Amino acid sequence: MRSITLGLFSLIILLTACRNDKLIRNNDPIDVAYDKSYALFENGKYGDAAYGFDLITRRGRGTDFAENSQFYLAESYFLNKRYLLAASEYERFISFYPQSDRREEVEYRLALSYYEQSPRYRLDQTPTYRALELLQLFNTKYPNSEYVVGAAEKIDELRNKLARKNFEAAEFYLRTDQYKSATIYFDQTIDLFPESKWAEEALVKQVQTYIIYADKSIDEKQAERYGMAIANYEKFIQLFPQSNKREEVEGLYNEAASKLAKVGGSASGDSIGSN
């Protein structure tokens, strides 16, 4: 029994010694600390790796290991889904090593760090705007990059999210009878994101909204607002001539034109005023 206990004790000591040998100590030489950190990174232990690479970036400034450590520090945070910290470290890399061969990759990873922080469309979209800005800048700066296609796909995705946020805001104002605000947000969806899948629906809703808005307006404003419904119908025909919603929007046009005639207006552009 005693020999078994001693054997287990020896095994524990051996395993502990092996584990401790892989840990990064403050007094490790820079090259040893780097090798340990990189081994941890390769094994997917990104939190431990980040600790080591951070240590090297602070202790080893000016050494051959500093640039790689700064890159892998950012990568460790990114792969550990700590995107805010990753973005900060990628930005620091660009600041410290502006001429690095990794500059293109780092700028893309920086954009991805904000892309990964982009929340559901209902929430504050500050990270979305930042990601969009960085991805668009990347594609302008590196048109031949291998990352361009992926960046373009993410740009489309983010723009659709922003378009949806505007569209849903317009829908909310429409449901709560705030027609002026609804028209503003439908306009933003159409004008800012014309290529998005929400622009077509926003134009249909805009025609409908102006009709309802006119119906509930004082007599002096009705002709103007029916005219705006007709103007948005014409915009719809120009932008989406092959739309499967054309029959629906033509029905709305006929309704607006009929009501405009009854209040003494004309379906020409001369009847169209401001909101």
Average of pLDDT = 89
SSE run: HHHHHHHHHHHH
Helix-and-strand structural type: mainly alpha
Radius of gyration: 30 Å
Strand content: under 5%
Head-to-tail CA distance between termini: 92 Å
Bulk shape? elongated
Count every helix, treating DSSP H or I runs of 4 or more residues as helices: 12
| Biggest β-sheet strands, sense, barrel | none
Low-confidence runs of at least 5 consecutive residues = 3-20, 269-275
Number of strands: 0
Report helical residue fraction.
over 70%
Description:
By secondary structure, the chain is mainly α. Helix content is 75%, strand content 0%. It has helices spanning 2-22, 30-42, 46-59, 66-79, 83-96, 103-117, 126-141, 148-175, 179-192, 197-215, 219-239, 246-262. α5 packs antiparallel against α6. The protein is elongated, with a radius of gyration of 30 Å. The termini are far apart.
Summarize, please.
The chain has helices at 2-22, 30-42, 46-59, 66-79, 83-96, 103-117, 126-141, 148-175, 179-192, 197-215, 219-239, 246-262.
Main attributes of the structure:
275 residues; mainly alpha; 75% helix; elongated; disordered N terminus
Topology (elements, then pairings):
Layout: H1 2-22, H2 30-42, H3 46-59, H4 66-79, H5 83-96, H6 103-117, H7 126-141, H8 148-175, H9 179-192, H10 197-215, H11 219-239, H12 246-262
Helix pairs in contact: 2-3, 3-4, 4-5, 5-6, 6-7, 7-8, 8-9, 8-10, 9-10, 10-11, 10-12, 11-12
